[in-house]
């Protein structure tokens, strides 16, 4: 049996917890329940060491940049840690390198700011966290802002709105990479049927 294709979720200090863990839940449930679909999901940080998330959760990733497998899909979460990345040429170069090899580049929340700074969103529709659109457009005024969209699929680049919207984006990835039926099975499996109490 051939090696599975790889989805990488990037984690970093001050990543927003649900931006990373929401997609992880969806994608890990899918890939572990149906390995025959030919996908796996891993986490990676810059050096492979643990990261401290925005609200204190600590995550120990599977890989660092140096030992990560080739990534077919990249998921870049948001959080306060993204702001420094928008001016960090090494971080932006890494994003561009991923984009040069991956089939799909996806962002959650303010992960879109990093993609904008790296030039990935030029002349594309995109969404981000509801209060971050001014920052997004300051980084790249050519972006077609979609503040009402839960997620935006523009072919090889996908963006989602904030925090919990990453779950919707991840389910959409399952549909794209497997099938609508598989997406529905995953949604049922994680019992994702939002009915907010307020």
For this structure, the CATH topology is: Rossmann fold
* Number of helical stretches of at least 4 residues: 7
Tally of individual domains: 1
Question: SSE string, helix = H, strand = E?
Answer: EHEEEEHHEHEHEEEHH
Q: Strand order, main sheet: write it out.
A: 2-1-5-6-10-9
Poorly predicted residue ranges: none
Query: How large is the radius of gyration?
Result: 16 Å
Label the overall shape: globular
Q: Into which percent range does the helicity of residues fall?
A: 25-40%
Q: Quick one: biggest sheet?
A: 6 strands, mixed
End-to-end separation = 48 Å
What would you call the structural class?
alpha/beta
Residue-averaged pLDDT: 97
Please characterize this protein's 3D structure.
The strands form 3 sheets. The chain has a 6-stranded mixed β-sheet with strand order 2-1-5-6-10-9, with helices on both faces. It has 198 residues and is α/β, with parallel strands linked by helices. The chain contains 7 helices and 10 strands. A hairpin with a 3-residue loop joins strand 9 and strand 10. The protein has a single domain, classed as Class I glutamine amidotransferase (GATase) domain (Rossmann fold). 36% of the residues lie in helices and 18% in strands.
Keywords:
six-stranded mixed β-sheet, 198 residues, single chain, globular, Rossmann fold, alpha/beta
